Amino acid sequence: MKKTIICCLLIIVFLIPAEKISAQSEIGKFFVAAGSSLDFSSFSSKWKTDYGSGDNGKSRNLELKSQVGYFVLNNISFGLEVPYIYTKTINSYETITSSSFTLVPFLKCYFGKSKVKPYLQGGMGMGWESTSYKESTSPELKVPSKIIAREIGGGLGIFLNEHCSIDIGMGYSYASDKWLDKSTNMNWNETSQGIAASIGFQICL
Question: What residue numbers bound the domain in which 75 lies?
Answer without folding.
Answer: 31-204
